[in-house]
Amino acid sequence: MRGCSEDELIEICQTIGLKRFRAIQLFQWAQQKAVRSWDDMKNIGKSDRQTLSTRLHLYALKKVREQRSNDGTRKYLFCLEDGETIECVLMDYARTKSRDRHTVCVSTQVGCPVGCAFCATGLEGFRRNLSVAEIVGQVLDITYYVRQEDPDFQVTNIVFMGMGEPLLNYDSVLKSIQLLNDAQGLNIGMRRMTISTSGVVPKIIQLAEDNPQVGLAISLHAARDEIRNSLVPMNRRYPLNQLMRACQEYTHITHRRITFEVALTAENARREEAEALARLLKGQLGHVNLIPVNPVAGTGMERPDQEKMKKFAQVLVDAGISVSSREERGTDIDAACGQLRRQWEGELK
Protein backbone atom coordinates (compact mmCIF):
# COMPACT_ATOMS: atom_id res chain seq x y z
CA MET A 1 0.00 0.00 0.00
CA ARG A 2 2.87 2.38 0.72
CA GLY A 3 3.82 2.28 -2.95
CA CYS A 4 0.35 3.25 -4.18
CA SER A 5 -0.86 6.67 -5.23
CA GLU A 6 -4.23 7.94 -4.07
CA ASP A 7 -5.76 7.13 -7.47
CA GLU A 8 -4.40 3.59 -7.29
CA LEU A 9 -5.87 3.14 -3.82
CA ILE A 10 -9.24 4.40 -5.05
CA GLU A 11 -9.22 1.75 -7.76
CA ILE A 12 -8.19 -0.97 -5.28
CA CYS A 13 -10.88 0.02 -2.79
CA GLN A 14 -13.57 -0.02 -5.45
CA THR A 15 -12.37 -3.46 -6.58
CA ILE A 16 -12.66 -4.94 -3.06
CA GLY A 17 -15.98 -3.28 -2.32
CA LEU A 18 -14.94 -0.29 -0.19
CA LYS A 19 -16.04 3.29 -0.61
CA ARG A 20 -13.90 5.86 -2.44
CA PHE A 21 -13.40 7.96 0.69
CA ARG A 22 -11.68 5.01 2.37
CA ALA A 23 -8.86 5.27 -0.18
CA ILE A 24 -8.31 8.92 0.69
CA GLN A 25 -8.18 8.03 4.37
CA LEU A 26 -5.77 5.16 3.68
CA PHE A 27 -3.42 7.38 1.75
CA GLN A 28 -3.29 9.94 4.54
CA TRP A 29 -2.73 7.29 7.22
CA ALA A 30 0.04 5.62 5.25
CA GLN A 31 1.80 8.60 3.68
CA GLN A 32 1.16 11.50 6.04
CA LYS A 33 0.85 9.83 9.43
CA ALA A 34 3.28 7.02 8.57
CA VAL A 35 1.40 4.35 10.54
CA ARG A 36 2.73 0.79 10.52
CA SER A 37 -0.45 -1.11 11.44
CA TRP A 38 -4.05 -1.31 10.24
CA ASP A 39 -5.15 -0.97 13.87
CA ASP A 40 -3.57 2.50 14.02
CA MET A 41 -6.08 3.76 11.43
CA LYS A 42 -8.59 4.97 13.99
CA ASN A 43 -11.31 6.33 11.70
CA ILE A 44 -11.60 3.14 9.62
CA GLY A 45 -14.12 0.62 10.92
CA LYS A 46 -13.04 -2.80 12.17
CA SER A 47 -14.84 -4.63 9.35
CA ASP A 48 -13.12 -2.54 6.67
CA ARG A 49 -9.77 -2.94 8.41
CA GLN A 50 -10.19 -6.70 8.32
CA THR A 51 -11.02 -6.56 4.61
CA LEU A 52 -7.99 -4.40 3.94
CA SER A 53 -5.65 -6.62 5.95
CA THR A 54 -6.55 -9.63 3.83
CA ARG A 55 -6.61 -7.87 0.44
CA LEU A 56 -3.99 -5.12 0.68
CA HIS A 57 -0.43 -5.30 2.00
CA LEU A 58 0.61 -2.40 4.26
CA TYR A 59 4.30 -3.38 4.11
CA ALA A 60 6.11 -1.83 7.05
CA LEU A 61 9.86 -2.46 7.15
CA LYS A 62 11.39 -4.45 10.00
CA LYS A 63 13.91 -2.46 12.02
CA VAL A 64 16.92 -4.68 12.69
CA ARG A 65 19.28 -2.15 14.20
CA GLU A 66 19.51 1.56 15.00
CA GLN A 67 22.68 3.46 15.79
CA ARG A 68 22.85 7.01 17.12
CA SER A 69 25.79 9.32 16.70
CA ASN A 70 27.00 11.95 19.13
CA ASP A 71 26.04 14.57 16.51
CA GLY A 72 22.41 13.37 16.40
CA THR A 73 22.69 11.29 13.23
CA ARG A 74 20.70 8.07 13.29
CA LYS A 75 21.46 5.10 11.08
CA TYR A 76 18.90 2.36 10.51
CA LEU A 77 19.23 -1.16 9.18
CA PHE A 78 15.92 -2.48 7.86
CA CYS A 79 15.10 -6.04 6.88
CA LEU A 80 12.90 -6.63 3.82
CA GLU A 81 10.36 -9.41 3.37
CA ASP A 82 12.81 -11.60 1.45
CA GLY A 83 15.42 -11.31 4.20
CA GLU A 84 17.61 -8.75 2.41
CA THR A 85 18.73 -5.71 4.37
CA ILE A 86 19.09 -2.02 3.49
CA GLU A 87 20.37 1.08 5.25
CA CYS A 88 19.11 4.62 5.55
CA VAL A 89 20.32 7.58 7.59
CA LEU A 90 18.62 10.51 9.31
CA MET A 91 20.77 13.63 9.58
CA ASP A 92 19.63 16.62 11.64
CA TYR A 93 20.98 20.08 10.90
CA ALA A 94 20.10 23.19 12.90
CA ARG A 95 18.90 25.79 10.41
CA THR A 96 16.75 28.42 12.11
CA LYS A 97 15.12 28.89 15.49
CA SER A 98 11.75 28.05 13.97
CA ARG A 99 12.67 25.05 11.86
CA ASP A 100 15.52 22.57 11.63
CA ARG A 101 16.49 20.55 8.59
CA HIS A 102 15.90 16.81 8.86
CA THR A 103 17.45 14.97 5.92
CA VAL A 104 16.94 11.29 5.17
CA CYS A 105 19.47 9.50 2.99
CA VAL A 106 17.55 6.76 1.16
CA SER A 107 18.67 3.51 -0.47
CA THR A 108 17.26 2.51 -3.86
CA GLN A 109 18.81 -0.95 -4.36
CA VAL A 110 19.92 -3.91 -2.28
CA GLY A 111 23.66 -3.64 -2.82
CA CYS A 112 24.94 -1.82 -5.89
CA PRO A 113 26.03 -2.91 -9.39
CA VAL A 114 28.40 0.03 -9.92
CA GLY A 115 31.14 -1.03 -7.49
CA CYS A 116 32.86 2.28 -6.73
CA ALA A 117 36.30 1.61 -5.24
CA PHE A 118 35.74 3.54 -1.98
CA CYS A 119 32.18 2.37 -1.21
CA ALA A 120 31.28 -0.37 1.27
CA THR A 121 28.01 -1.12 -0.55
CA GLY A 122 29.73 -2.25 -3.73
CA LEU A 123 31.94 -4.67 -1.82
CA GLU A 124 28.88 -6.85 -1.17
CA GLY A 125 27.70 -6.90 -4.80
CA PHE A 126 24.22 -6.28 -6.23
CA ARG A 127 21.09 -8.20 -5.23
CA ARG A 128 18.05 -6.38 -6.65
CA ASN A 129 16.17 -3.12 -7.09
CA LEU A 130 13.90 -1.84 -4.33
CA SER A 131 10.19 -1.45 -4.91
CA VAL A 132 8.43 1.89 -4.51
CA ALA A 133 7.02 0.72 -1.17
CA GLU A 134 10.52 -0.20 0.04
CA ILE A 135 11.96 3.17 -0.98
CA VAL A 136 9.15 5.27 0.47
CA GLY A 137 8.96 2.98 3.48
CA GLN A 138 12.40 4.06 4.68
CA VAL A 139 11.22 7.65 5.02
CA LEU A 140 7.89 6.64 6.53
CA ASP A 141 9.38 4.28 9.10
CA ILE A 142 12.03 6.78 10.19
CA THR A 143 9.22 9.32 10.56
CA TYR A 144 7.19 6.84 12.62
CA TYR A 145 10.04 5.95 14.98
CA VAL A 146 11.19 9.52 15.58
CA ARG A 147 7.61 10.67 16.19
CA GLN A 148 7.46 8.28 19.14
CA GLU A 149 9.89 10.72 20.81
CA ASP A 150 8.94 13.94 18.99
CA PRO A 151 5.31 14.00 17.71
CA ASP A 152 5.98 17.13 15.64
CA PHE A 153 8.90 15.63 13.71
CA GLN A 154 8.85 16.17 9.94
CA VAL A 155 11.35 15.07 7.31
CA THR A 156 12.31 18.17 5.32
CA ASN A 157 14.83 16.85 2.77
CA ILE A 158 15.51 13.58 0.93
CA VAL A 159 18.73 12.52 -0.76
CA PHE A 160 18.71 9.41 -2.91
CA MET A 161 22.35 8.60 -2.29
CA GLY A 162 22.21 5.64 0.06
CA MET A 163 22.83 2.09 -1.12
CA GLY A 164 22.53 1.63 -4.88
CA GLU A 165 22.47 3.69 -8.08
CA PRO A 166 19.11 5.54 -8.19
CA LEU A 167 19.08 6.04 -11.95
CA LEU A 168 19.33 2.28 -12.49
CA ASN A 169 16.01 1.99 -10.63
CA TYR A 170 14.60 5.01 -12.40
CA ASP A 171 10.84 4.39 -12.53
CA SER A 172 10.57 3.35 -8.88
CA VAL A 173 12.63 6.33 -7.73
CA LEU A 174 10.52 8.82 -9.68
CA LYS A 175 7.26 7.37 -8.39
CA SER A 176 8.68 7.48 -4.85
CA ILE A 177 9.45 11.17 -5.32
CA GLN A 178 5.87 11.82 -6.43
CA LEU A 179 4.49 10.07 -3.35
CA LEU A 180 6.83 11.86 -0.94
CA ASN A 181 5.90 15.18 -2.57
CA ASP A 182 2.12 14.59 -2.44
CA ALA A 183 0.32 17.33 -0.50
CA GLN A 184 -1.81 14.70 1.27
CA GLY A 185 1.34 12.82 2.30
CA LEU A 186 4.60 14.10 3.77
CA ASN A 187 4.48 17.04 1.32
CA ILE A 188 8.25 17.26 0.89
CA GLY A 189 9.11 19.87 -1.73
CA MET A 190 10.53 18.66 -5.06
CA ARG A 191 13.42 21.06 -4.70
CA ARG A 192 14.22 19.53 -1.32
CA MET A 193 14.90 16.15 -2.91
CA THR A 194 18.17 15.24 -4.64
CA ILE A 195 19.17 12.24 -6.74
CA SER A 196 22.83 11.27 -6.67
CA THR A 197 24.20 9.30 -9.63
CA SER A 198 27.54 7.83 -10.62
CA GLY A 199 26.85 9.01 -14.16
CA VAL A 200 24.09 7.10 -15.99
CA VAL A 201 24.14 9.53 -18.92
CA PRO A 202 20.83 8.71 -20.71
CA LYS A 203 18.87 8.89 -17.45
CA ILE A 204 20.40 12.25 -16.50
CA ILE A 205 18.86 13.78 -19.61
CA GLN A 206 15.60 11.91 -19.10
CA LEU A 207 15.42 13.18 -15.51
CA ALA A 208 15.77 16.76 -16.73
CA GLU A 209 12.76 16.22 -18.98
CA ASP A 210 10.64 14.16 -16.57
CA ASN A 211 11.21 16.10 -13.34
CA PRO A 212 13.27 19.30 -13.67
CA GLN A 213 12.50 20.33 -10.08
CA VAL A 214 14.47 17.55 -8.38
CA GLY A 215 18.11 18.26 -7.56
CA LEU A 216 20.96 16.34 -9.18
CA ALA A 217 24.29 15.34 -7.66
CA ILE A 218 27.06 13.68 -9.66
CA SER A 219 29.48 11.33 -7.92
CA LEU A 220 32.40 12.66 -9.93
CA HIS A 221 35.44 11.91 -7.75
CA ALA A 222 38.01 12.38 -10.53
CA ALA A 223 38.54 14.69 -13.48
CA ARG A 224 40.51 12.31 -15.69
CA ASP A 225 39.17 9.14 -17.29
CA GLU A 226 42.18 7.00 -16.39
CA ILE A 227 41.60 7.71 -12.69
CA ARG A 228 37.80 7.74 -12.71
CA ASN A 229 37.71 4.37 -14.51
CA SER A 230 39.19 2.75 -11.42
CA LEU A 231 37.24 4.78 -8.86
CA VAL A 232 33.83 4.76 -10.59
CA PRO A 233 33.48 1.83 -13.03
CA MET A 234 30.42 3.47 -14.61
CA ASN A 235 32.94 5.78 -16.28
CA ARG A 236 34.04 2.96 -18.59
CA ARG A 237 30.57 2.96 -20.11
CA TYR A 238 29.94 6.70 -19.95
CA PRO A 239 33.31 8.51 -19.96
CA LEU A 240 33.76 12.08 -18.79
CA ASN A 241 33.19 13.73 -22.15
CA GLN A 242 29.75 12.09 -22.39
CA LEU A 243 28.96 12.79 -18.76
CA MET A 244 29.81 16.47 -18.99
CA ARG A 245 27.75 16.88 -22.16
CA ALA A 246 24.81 15.36 -20.30
CA CYS A 247 25.39 17.77 -17.41
CA GLN A 248 25.40 20.73 -19.79
CA GLU A 249 22.15 19.48 -21.31
CA TYR A 250 20.65 19.02 -17.85
CA THR A 251 21.41 22.59 -16.79
CA HIS A 252 20.23 23.91 -20.17
CA ILE A 253 16.83 22.26 -19.66
CA THR A 254 16.37 22.80 -15.93
CA HIS A 255 18.46 25.96 -15.25
CA ARG A 256 19.48 24.19 -12.03
CA ARG A 257 22.93 23.92 -10.53
CA ILE A 258 24.46 20.44 -10.26
CA THR A 259 26.38 19.33 -7.19
CA PHE A 260 29.59 17.50 -8.06
CA GLU A 261 30.67 15.17 -5.26
CA VAL A 262 34.43 14.59 -5.02
CA ALA A 263 35.74 12.06 -2.50
CA LEU A 264 39.32 12.94 -1.62
CA THR A 265 41.88 10.39 -0.51
CA ALA A 266 45.39 10.94 0.80
CA GLU A 267 46.57 9.97 -2.68
CA ASN A 268 44.36 12.04 -4.98
CA ALA A 269 44.13 15.27 -2.94
CA ARG A 270 46.87 16.81 -5.05
CA ARG A 271 47.15 20.19 -6.75
CA GLU A 272 47.31 18.69 -10.25
CA GLU A 273 44.03 16.84 -9.64
CA ALA A 274 42.39 20.04 -8.41
CA GLU A 275 43.59 21.87 -11.52
CA ALA A 276 42.23 19.10 -13.76
CA LEU A 277 38.88 19.35 -11.96
CA ALA A 278 38.80 23.12 -12.44
CA ARG A 279 39.42 22.68 -16.18
CA LEU A 280 36.72 20.00 -16.46
CA LEU A 281 34.07 22.14 -14.75
CA LYS A 282 34.91 25.44 -16.42
CA GLY A 283 31.66 26.97 -17.72
CA GLN A 284 29.47 24.36 -16.03
CA LEU A 285 26.70 25.56 -13.72
CA GLY A 286 27.63 23.62 -10.63
CA HIS A 287 29.03 23.40 -7.15
CA VAL A 288 31.79 21.08 -5.90
CA ASN A 289 31.31 19.27 -2.61
CA LEU A 290 34.59 17.90 -1.27
CA ILE A 291 34.31 14.80 0.91
CA PRO A 292 37.13 13.12 2.83
CA VAL A 293 36.85 9.46 1.87
CA ASN A 294 35.14 7.30 4.46
CA PRO A 295 37.41 4.87 6.32
CA VAL A 296 36.02 1.56 4.99
CA ALA A 297 37.82 -1.69 5.71
CA GLY A 298 38.71 -3.45 2.48
CA THR A 299 39.19 -0.40 0.27
CA GLY A 300 42.75 0.45 1.33
CA MET A 301 42.04 4.17 1.05
CA GLU A 302 43.12 6.74 3.61
CA ARG A 303 41.73 10.19 4.32
CA PRO A 304 43.66 13.36 3.47
CA ASP A 305 44.49 15.75 6.30
CA GLN A 306 42.68 19.07 6.63
CA GLU A 307 45.57 21.03 5.15
CA LYS A 308 45.42 19.01 1.91
CA MET A 309 41.66 19.52 1.79
CA LYS A 310 42.05 23.28 2.16
CA LYS A 311 44.73 23.52 -0.52
CA PHE A 312 42.64 21.45 -2.93
CA ALA A 313 39.63 23.68 -2.34
CA GLN A 314 41.67 26.86 -2.78
CA VAL A 315 42.73 25.81 -6.29
CA LEU A 316 39.06 25.55 -7.23
CA VAL A 317 38.18 28.86 -5.59
CA ASP A 318 41.02 30.58 -7.47
CA ALA A 319 39.58 29.17 -10.72
CA GLY A 320 36.14 30.60 -9.94
CA ILE A 321 34.56 27.26 -9.02
CA SER A 322 32.00 27.20 -6.20
CA VAL A 323 33.19 24.74 -3.57
CA SER A 324 32.46 23.54 -0.06
CA SER A 325 33.56 20.71 2.20
CA ARG A 326 30.84 18.37 3.35
CA GLU A 327 29.91 18.61 7.00
CA GLU A 328 30.58 15.11 8.23
CA ARG A 329 27.82 13.33 10.10
CA GLY A 330 27.77 10.01 11.89
CA THR A 331 31.42 9.04 11.46
CA ASP A 332 31.42 7.48 14.94
CA ILE A 333 28.62 5.08 13.93
CA ASP A 334 29.97 4.11 10.47
CA ALA A 335 27.24 6.09 8.71
CA ALA A 336 28.75 5.72 5.23
CA CYS A 337 26.76 3.66 2.71
CA GLY A 338 26.91 -0.07 3.29
CA GLN A 339 28.99 -0.13 6.47
CA LEU A 340 26.26 -1.12 8.92
CA ARG A 341 24.82 -3.73 6.56
CA ARG A 342 28.25 -5.22 5.94
CA GLN A 343 28.89 -5.37 9.68
CA TRP A 344 25.54 -7.05 10.29
CA GLU A 345 26.01 -9.68 7.57
CA GLY A 346 29.50 -10.37 8.89
CA GLU A 347 28.02 -11.12 12.31
CA LEU A 348 25.59 -13.62 10.77
CA LYS A 349 28.33 -15.63 9.05
From TrEMBL:
Cellular localization per UniProt: Cytoplasm
GO terms for MF: 4 iron, 4 sulfur cluster binding; metal ion binding; rRNA (adenine(2503)-C2-)-methyltransferase activity; rRNA binding; tRNA (adenine(37)-C2)-methyltransferase activity; tRNA binding
Q: Which GO terms describe its cellular component?
A: cytoplasm
Write out the residues that bind S-adenosyl-L-methionine.
Answer: G164, E165, S196, S219, L220, H221, N294
The principal location of this protein is cytoplasm
What other facts are recorded? Reaction proceeds by a ping-pong mechanism involving intermediate methylation of a conserved cysteine residue.
The entry's protein name is: Probable dual-specificity RNA methyltransferase RlmN
Organism the protein comes from = Desulfosporosinus lacus DSM 15449
Record's family?
Answer: Belongs to the radical SAM superfamily. RlmN family.
What the entry lists under InterPro entries is as follows: Aldolase_TIM, Elp3/MiaA/NifB-like_rSAM, Methyltransferase_A, RlmN_N, RNA_MTrfase_RlmN, rRNA_lsu_MTrfase_RlmN/Cfr, rSAM, rSAM_sf
Would I find Cell membrane among this entry's keywords? no
Enzyme Commission number, as recorded: 2.1.1.192
Q: Which cofactor does it need?
A: [4Fe-4S] cluster
Give me the comment on cofactor binding. Answer: Binds 1 [4Fe-4S] cluster. The cluster is coordinated with 3 cysteines and an exchangeable S-adenosyl-L-methionine.
Q: Does the keyword Calcium apply?
A: no
Q: Which reaction does it catalyse?
A: adenosine(2503) in 23S rRNA + 2 reduced [2Fe-2S]-[ferredoxin] + 2 S-adenosyl-L-methionine = 2-methyladenosine(2503) in 23S rRNA + 5'-deoxyadenosine + L-methionine + 2 oxidized [2Fe-2S]-[ferredoxin] + S-adenosyl-L-homocysteine; adenosine(37) in tRNA + 2 reduced [2Fe-2S]-[ferredoxin] + 2 S-adenosyl-L-methionine = 2-methyladenosine(37) in tRNA + 5'-deoxyadenosine + L-methionine + 2 oxidized [2Fe-2S]-[ferredoxin] + S-adenosyl-L-homocysteine
**Domain Radical SAM core per the UniProt entry, residue ranges:** 98-332
GO BP annotation list: rRNA base methylation; tRNA methylation
